[in-house]
Amino acid sequence: MKVTLSVIKADVGGYVGHSESHPDIIAKAQECLNKAKKEGMLIDCQATKCGDDLQLIMTHQKGTGNYDIHKLAWDTFITGTELAKKMKLYGAGQDLLTDAFSGNVKGMGPGLAEMEFEERTSEPVLIFMADKTSAGAWNMPLYKMFADPFNTIGLVIAPSMHTGYVFEVHDVKEHKKIRFSAPEEIYDMLVFIGAPARFAVKYVYHKETGEIASASSTERLSLLAGKYVGKDDPVCIVRAQGIFPAVGEILEPFASPVLVEGWMRGSHMGPLMPVSVADSTPARFDGPPRVIGLGYQLNNGMLVGPRDMLADKSFNLARHHANEMADMMRRHGPFEPHRLPLEEMEYTTMPEVMEKLKDRFEDLV
Ligand code: 13P
Ligand code: 13P
Ligand code: MG
Ligand code: MG
């Protein structure tokens, strides 16, 4: 049977500050989704959180970019925002950039990862969600999962994976897309995806069959809004096993934390720390950035799960390393490379200061 898996997220209000989501907001969202499930619009649904971001995980048979599903998500975020305002939570409705729904949540503030596929005899899927970081943060993990044999041994020894994968990369500033075939074109591809602020991996496909393997949210809030309103806090769906990497190969990149853009005021580089859902509570300097990973077995579209995959003890050392990296980065205070370079700060909190001082600059003689 054909199933669509839609993960749509937005920050509709934080508790306390930007550190967490209030359980009443998640419960309210679940209520909205349950109603749609009862009416037959959804096969299954779960509302959850990553830090201060409300996550809607939905299965249905309406395909990607469907009006009804996107409207349901939008209305749920509006309902959540109303409650957040009533509770005086922080930054209520932060990620909703317009008042009126225009047919698709794309470009309206929420982040979106969706894919439609024929459900296999057994269909394990992983859903990654991050807080305090930007779209593009999945570039390196996806590269490792689908193109790096040091991460994914299946690329070498599994005949079903040996021909490789196709990456669809989006230029989020110029609104263009390009496909790269791995492994033949990895050097070309790395020129672009090594710059995740501009180029983000949107989809990955199994080369031989064309089957969709992964979908990510690539919406850049600051580019949509023209100013800093909050971080993208992206999501990513990855199918596992068979012609795709094994669950453990998909989790492996998160065992080696790397620096991503985000953290305090969206203006810093910091380590992406793998955590449980319960520990997705950015605290120190509003961070460090967090990633959670929920595992499901789909059963005729029903979400059997979640298993809280990154809660596992095998990520303890990664958490420790991430905290050490956080310490090292914090030592730089307001200096680069902790603080983002000036071009990126253009979309964060700095433009007003630069504007105020621009007339005081004199020519050097
Ligand atoms: P305020 O200026 O509203 O305190 O927000 C700062 C902040 O949280 C940065 O995102
Ligand atoms: P969020 O994007 O998670 O709301 O974080 C905003 C921020 O500026 C934290 O300092
Ligand atoms: Mg927030
Ligand atoms: Mg957030």
Keywords:
365 residues, alpha+beta, Alpha-Beta Plaits, 2 domains, nine-stranded mixed β-sheet, four-stranded antiparallel β-sheet, 15 strands, globular, binds 1,3-dihydroxyacetonephosphate, binds magnesium ion
Explain how this protein is built.
With 365 residues, the chain is an alpha+beta fold. It folds into two domains: 1-118, 2-Layer Sandwich (Alpha-Beta Plaits); 119-346, no CATH class. It is 25% helix and 27% strand. It is built from ten helices and 15 strands. Strands 5, 6, 7, 8, 9, 10, 13, 14 and 15 form a nine-stranded mixed sheet that branches. A four-stranded antiparallel sheet has the order 2-3-1-4. A two-stranded antiparallel ribbon has the order 11-12. Helix 1 (23-38) runs antiparallel to helix 2. It is globular, with a radius of gyration of 20 Å. It starts with a strand and ends in an 8-residue tail after the last helix. Residues 11, 14, 18, 52, 91, 94, 230 line the site of one magnesium ion (MG).
